Amino acid sequence: MRVNAFLADSAEVINNKIYALGAGWSAINVRSFPAVHRRVAVAVSIAVPYTETNTKHQLTLQLQSEDGKHLPLGARAGADGKPEPVTQMGGEFTLGRPPQLVDGDEQTACFAFAIDAMRFSEAGFLSWVISIDGEEVTRLPMRVQQAAQ
User: Fold this and answer.
1) 87 near 73, Cβ under 8 Å?
2) Tens digit of pLDDT for each residue in 32-72?
């Protein structure tokens, strides 16, 4: 599968089309650390080959530090009600074969992930890791740095 992805300030998918604002950046400048960034969106477009349609696929998005550590994207309430870190987003997707699809043609599946109030404890180089069916397919680089005063 071919994957195209980009970072944006905001993104959503409507009728399998990505609508994005402030797209195409790769660095966040902050005044000081720790920092909270209002919103980070990751938009993903997947070209699914004809032979991979009618099959369930698993899409996973993770944020990784330079040393390979999976960073939290946020938190959710655990079974005991206490916050637990969320280190990945994604889910299953399946594309069928509609009657008008020509044998051999690929189809496109679009996704958008938005993370509000993203926290960063320090400056560094990060990678958004996109995997399909447990196999890494692409990385989006992102640098978090202190802005020049």
Assistant:
1) yes
2) 999 999 999 999 999 999 999 999 999 999 999 999 999 99
pTM for the full predicted model: 0.92
**In this structure, which amino acid lies at residue 29?**
N
Residue 23 belongs to domain with CATH number: 2.60.40.10
6 token code pair: 């980009």
Please count the structural domains in the chain: 1
Contact 112, 18 (CB under 8 A): yes
The DSSP output letter for 102 is P
Q: 7 lies in which domain range? A: 2-146
d(CA 56, CA 38): 33
Question: CA-CA distance, 48 to 14, in Å (whole number)?
Answer: 18
